[in-house]
Amino acid sequence: MSPKQETIDKILKVPPPRTMKQLRAFLGLVSFYRKYVPDFAVVAAPLTDATQKGNPNNIVWNDARDHAFQELKRRISTSPILKLPDVTKPFILQTDASHTGIGDILLQEDAAGDKRPVAFASRKLEPRETRYSTIERECLAIVC
């Protein structure tokens, strides 16, 4: 399973957003495909931070936001293709936590013994969660 090539082409042609409305539209479009992008929330954090209440309508475009914008487009166009799950086989859960977000990858072994992704999940940490210790953030990734 992977995003439709037609949609990927549209996403790759999107120019950098200059207003809050354009940024929210872009994030809405790429968020639909977040299950295909490992660590989506962490990569998108500079962009989602710009949508917070109280920020100006005209986006101040900086290197961090541009990197996040380009990286999201790159990851959506080149992310690994998800394997359909086989409920009769065991699943493998890999978690990752940073100071910005948490992420999970659900894997299964294929016939050749290679671990293939079945699903990705990630989210940005709440301000209180950024103060958790490393092991607490890793445990939070398992729970979420």
Which helices and strands occur, and which strands form pairs?
Elements lengths: L4 H9 L6 H12 L8 H10 L13 H16 L13 E6 L3 E9 L5 E10 L9 H10 L1
Antiparallel strand pairs: 1-2, 2-3
Describe this structure in words.
This protein is an alpha+beta fold and 144 residues long. The chain has helices at residues 5-13, 20-31, 40-49, 63-78, 134-143, and strands at residues 92-97, 101-109, 115-124. It has a three-stranded antiparallel β-sheet with strand order 1-2-3. A hairpin with a 3-residue loop joins strand 1 (92-97) and strand 2 (101-109). Helix 2 packs antiparallel against helix 3 (40-49). The longest helix has 16 residues, at 63-78. It is flat.
How are the strands of the biggest sheet laid out side by side?
1-2-3
Overall pLDDT score: 89
Helix % is 25-40%
**Number of helices, counting only DSSP H or I runs of 4 residues or more:** 5
Percent of residues in beta strands: 15-25%
| Low-confidence regions | none
Cα Rg: 17 Å
Which term fits the overall shape? flat
Q: Give the biggest sheet.
A: 3 strands, antiparallel
Overall number of strands: 3
Q: Element order, helices and strands?
A: HHHHEEEH
Class derived from helix and strand content: alpha+beta
Amino- and carboxy-terminal Cα gap = 23 Å
